[in-house]
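Quiz preparation item.
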């Protein structure tokens, strides 16, 4: 009988230890922190205007923020100077170069999350013959020549087309604003929906 009782006690002890182990594992899982979305860091943004009739004719205008998430903001380094009566395609180089040995292509990340991002634009009235007007930052329905769409058919703006007038001008304004709109982007969301990743205003000249 003593032997049987000993076996019973050992069995109960084993079951109790297993239960404690399972509860401990469950508590560890509950205590695990939730995964947070990674914050995008922009240190270098370059607007690239390529002449559609002569792809060797490229105009670049850059902004830079060498401290990334620090107190500095992106600083405009160049004016945009375009030729008169010319059609351009606007694309971007968008980088996180905080670590020069491991430069991140944030433009590729935006492309991969295009259903969460959209570029909006503002420019001096009459600066372009196409699109007309003054951009869609103030009114989302204003015309912009978007060349790309996300999987839902909504505009993105990593590529757009711009045509300058025959008349020259100086001291105009061109703003490119990137909005991050996770779970809210639709065909009618505007520049005030979501969070602003960056808003860059350049001097615009046509000559």
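Solution:
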């Amino acid at each position: 009988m003593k032997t049987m009782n000993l076996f019973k006690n050992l069995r109960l002890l084993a079951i109790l230890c297993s239960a404690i182990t399972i509860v401990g594992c469950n508590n560890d899982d509950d205590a695990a922190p939730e995964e947070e979305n990674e914050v995008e860091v922009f240190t270098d943004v370059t607007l690239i205007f390529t002449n559609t009739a002569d792809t060797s004719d490229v105009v670049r205008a850059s902004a830079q923020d060498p401290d990334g998430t620090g107190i500095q903001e992106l600083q405009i380094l160049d004016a945009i100077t375009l030729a008169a009566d010319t059609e351009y395609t606007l694309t971007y180089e968008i980088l996180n170069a905080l670590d020069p040995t491991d430069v991140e292509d944030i433009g590729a990340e935006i492309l991969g999350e295009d259903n969460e991002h959209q570029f909006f634009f503002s420019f001096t009235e009459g600066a372009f013959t196409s699109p007309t007007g003054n951009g869609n930052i103030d009114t989302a329905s204003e015309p912009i020549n978007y060349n790309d769409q996300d999987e839902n058919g909504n505009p993105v703006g990593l590529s757009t087309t711009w045509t300058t007038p025959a008349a020259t001008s100086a001291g105009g304004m061109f703003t490119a604003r990137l909005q991050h709109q996770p779970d809210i982007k639709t065909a009618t969301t505007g520049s005030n929906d979501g969070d602003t990743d960056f808003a860059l205003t350049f001097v615009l000249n046509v000559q």
